[in-house]
Amino acid sequence: MTYQIDPKHSAARFKVRHMMIANVGGEFNSVSGSVDFDAAKPEHSRIEASIDVNSLHTGDPQRDGHIKGGDFFDAAQFPAITFRAGQVAPGAGGNSYKVAGDLTLRGVTKPVTLHVDSVSPEVTDPWGLQRRGLSATTTINRKDFGMAWNAEVGGGMMLSENVEITLDLEMTRAAS
């Protein structure tokens, strides 16, 4: 079954430890792509997703500008984050999965594994489309993708290297 990621009902969120005392996060509101998924044969699943870097929102326009700039995402040169996966395996429990693929961020491609906690059953929406949802998480080291900016503060660093990512996706397909 091929599903389209519904950009109006999906988001990619992130959080990073700020000044080593609290997490600060943001989200990208423009996630698109397709998911080929067969619950009976998850190993045949394929995912292609894209995130518009300019859809970043952290609640602070000045911070958004800095993160979209050259110190981090460099959105002018690299306007999209992409993920392509072709290896899906059952996870630790019931309806969970491990999705291995390539994340391209800021022109750098690295392998990552998404941990999908569950995939919802299909439901039919009022317009006759079949819908499923899922949530997935992973952690990346931002320096692996060329985002090395940092500053010393109070005997520590402004930002941790690790960034936690959460994807909340709603997907649609035409009814058969």
Structural class: mainly beta
Terminal CA distance reads 10 Å
What is the CATH level 1 assignment?
Mainly Beta
Report the helical percentage.
under 10%
Query: Roughly how many Å is the radius of gyration?
Result: 17 Å
Count every helix, treating DSSP H or I runs of 4 or more residues as helices.
1
The spatial strand order of the largest sheet comes to 1-4-5-7-8-9-11-14
Using DSSP, what is the number of strands? 14
Average per-residue pLDDT, rounded, comes to: 91
Counting structural domains, the number is: 1
Overall geometry comes to elongated
Low-confidence stretches: none
Describe the structure in your own words:
This protein has 176 residues and is mainly β. The chain has one domain (2-174): Lipocalin. Helices cover 5% and strands 57% of the residues. An eight-stranded antiparallel β-barrel has the order 1-4-5-7-8-9-11-14. It has a two-stranded antiparallel ribbon with strand order 12-13. It starts with a strand and ends with a strand.
